[in-house]
Amino acid sequence: MKLILTAAVEKLGLAGDVVEVKDGYGRNFLLPQGYAIAWTRGAEKQIEGIKRARDAREVRDAEHAQELRDQLEELSVSITARTSESGQLFGAVTANDVVQAVRKAGGPALDRRSIEFSKPVKNTGEHVVGIKLHDSVNAHLRVEVVAA
């Protein structure tokens, strides 16, 4: 089965790559999860757009990643969430919440898949969130979760 990847898949390829996979893997995993679209001549034209979007989000090199790390570690990020009276969240803080809070605080645009939680954030207070910027560069962001 021939597919066009819409997101990076470990040990397979990056967004915009045309890959040949077994039918079951493509039909049962890649397509339902939204990691790929079926290859057609019409879809072939979308590859440039996918690659442009990937390049805009991608960290260029380790030096650029170090600059982003310094910028993120200086940033003060606050997320408001609905909580119970005891300070427990109704749900948890997601990677999308962190990305939006960083953008709102004036930080760089991040990919939600680069956010790494050591454990789920389910209560108010200050938490440390990991961000994988490059193979060799990780950033630690302090996030303050406050009650709405």
Structure description:
This protein is α+β, with helices and mostly antiparallel strands and 148 residues long. It has two domains: 2-63, Ribosomal Protein L9, domain 1 (3-Layer(aba) Sandwich), CATH 3.40.5; 67-147, Ribosomal protein L9, C-terminal domain (Ribosomal Protein L9, domain 2, Roll), CATH 3.10.430. The protein is built from five helices and seven strands; from the N terminus they run ββαβαααβαβββ. It has helices at 23-33, 41-44, 47-57, 62-74, 95-104; strands at residues 2-5, 18-20, 36-38, 77-81, 115-116, 125-134, 137-147. A hairpin with an 8-residue loop joins β5 (115-116) and β6. The protein is globular and about 55 Å long. The model has no long low-confidence stretch (mean pLDDT 87). GO terms for molecular function: rRNA binding; structural constituent of ribosome. Binds to the 23S rRNA. Belongs to the bacterial ribosomal protein bL9 family. Residues 13-40 form the Ribosomal protein L9 domain. InterPro entries: Ribosomal_bL9, Ribosomal_bL9/RNase_H1_N, Ribosomal_bL9_bac/chp, Ribosomal_bL9_C, Ribosomal_bL9_C_sf, Ribosomal_bL9_N, Ribosomal_bL9_N_sf.
Show the helix and strand layout.
Elements (H helix, E strand, L loop, with lengths): L1 E4 L12 E3 L2 H11 L2 E3 L2 H4 L2 H11 L4 H13 L2 E5 L13 H10 L10 E2 L8 E10 L2 E11 L1
Parallel strand pairs: 4-7
Antiparallel strand pairs: 1-2, 1-3, 5-6, 6-7
Keywords: Ribonucleoprotein, Ribosomal protein, RNA-binding, rRNA-binding
Organism: Parenemella sanctibonifatiensis
Pfam family, one: Ribosomal_L9_N
